[in-house]
Please model this.
Amino acid sequence: MKPLFTPGSIPKSLLPMFIFLVVTGTSVAQKADAADTFDITAPSMRFPHQYRQWGFQVAAGLLMVKPPMDLLENAIQAPLVNIHMTFGLPWRLSLEGDVQTIVVSNQFSLGPRIGYGYRNFYFNAGWDVAWVYGQLRQIGFDNRAKVWLHYPNLSVGYKLKRMAFTLRGEAVFVAKLTETSGGNEVSVSRNFYNGFTVGFYLEQRLWKNHVFIFGLKDNYEKYYWPTWMLFTTFNRYYHIPELSFMWIL
Amino acid sequence: MKIKITYFALLFLVFYGCNKDTTVPIPMAGPNSILGDTYPLTSSAKLLMDGVYKVNDGSGLFGSQVILKWNRTHLSIACNNGKYFVMDVGRLDSVIFLQGYWRDGYSDGTGLASMHIARGEGGTMIVSGTGQQTIVIRGAYGQGSTLPDQVLNLTRLRSFSTKAAASKFYILAHRSGGRTSDRLPVSENSLAMIGFTERLGSTGIEVDVRITKDGIPFLYHDGDLNIRLTEKGPLAGPAENYTWAQLSAFVRLIHGEKIPTLEEALTYTIDSTLLNFVYLDMKETSGAMATVTSIQERMLQHAAAKGRDIIIVVGIPTTGALNDLKSVPGYQSIPSLCELTVDDVRAVNSMVWAPRWTLGLQNDLVQQMHDEGRLALCWTIDQPNWIEEYITQGHFNGLLTNFPYVVAYYHYTQQ
Model:
């Protein structure tokens, strides 16, 4: 009775391929020419450096999520498509935008960052505001969700010449959550602390100026927006791991 | 290179290894519980305890009002916010002792509860069946595994209204009484859950029916054997790919129970519980309707022989199932529950119409069903505000829910 869509992982058989790609790519990258002037700082996106003024950069990739078994049940699984954008501003500021989608659930976020660096260590702080819109009108369902979220966040990073490591934490606050089914408001919630996330990102040059981002993130949350269509009534925190593979375009 | 491979392998393990769900443990009073020295209450004494109570102390956690309702084995207390108590009760002389636990059905909150009713505060009246005393229940509750140390006092306000007590309203619990994801101590779609669910306020159940490779109907929800519902074992993939002998030998549900056959489940329901409604939710059992309905017919005869007033309906969730039912000779006399349109209900002469709750109250159509001598239920409604609205504003004969204690609260508090 619950034929619902939720995000999930791509087939596990593809995971070894991704890992192979990262490992072999890393190996190739380390054989770079000694005269190479490449510096991971410039093309990196998750790394919390001060982005070049008026510069614009985009990364795209897939997020693989493993929702908790309490929620998942017989749900159809699909990876989330993720597009991440950075726009450099004056005074150590930058603007970051992010789009995540599985068609029936979509999050758009935008927020400023301010960053500092000391030798190979970098730090930034930011505040993202996100809007989620979900719609499921198949197989007899007519469900919708609209959610406003806030993500105050901090990142610290350490870089080598061709590789950057970033640890990022963010708190998650739901400002307003509205879910409807068949035109009925199933739930409306406002202003609650929803949990936090901790993510680790590795940005690695593969060849020339091509950089790959590998991310591992733990969402420790009560309400995980991609699963809105399950209309869960559970008031529990779940660890929801998220693996990301992105390519800086 | 080896270090890098190890590094990524570790990340992979962390990713796939850190999602261990838990069961909420039931706090136990321990071997020194006073209940070991008490005597059970009579049926008439139990009836005197049923009613609507005011929460004098403890309302911060449990709300300002609760209902107490005896079931077959325990006294249950239901709150309007998804919390409930399951209490063992006994008496010593005219003092009544209640010990058990509370649980928050929407989260993992739980704790011990220990209460009593003194002689002069209703104990004498309950035990003797005479006199007029306002029942006052005094005690305490704990959080987690701590001893009860926070005051909980209840005062009886009134009996259940005639509307609530006399109407035959079905409180149907999902997955044979509760989902595994609700972190109950027993597995969904098991005999143990069927025996447990009355403590949650259920008066009926929905069970998920599948068919083995050799044609035996059994209870199981998911499309495949998985570690969400079963212990790790040698079988994988769709359960229907295996014979009953294989499932019975090699599969154990998440709390160790065997998967029951439909016949075992219905026999247990009839013989060992007071549940009065069973909804057989057919899961991809194309062509198996004749097998299931023959078991249904046999079990209804068994119930009649036992004097059990119980409804067993075969579910029609899809047009495929509807056509399957139509292929069975005499299908119009088979008790069925149709989730489709009222025209489909009429086409197969279903006993019950069961629309999805999100379609609204549909009071006009519900009344039409009543006028035709049919029942109307809706599924699967879990939000307290909607449960309240459907009970107070709707005309359904029952609700299918994952939170039967919330439905019980709103049903029994009706004026």
Q: What stands out?
A: Chain B has 14 helices and 17 strands. The CA atoms of residues 97 and 116 of chain B lie 4 Å apart. Residues 289-306 of chain B form the longest helix (18 residues).
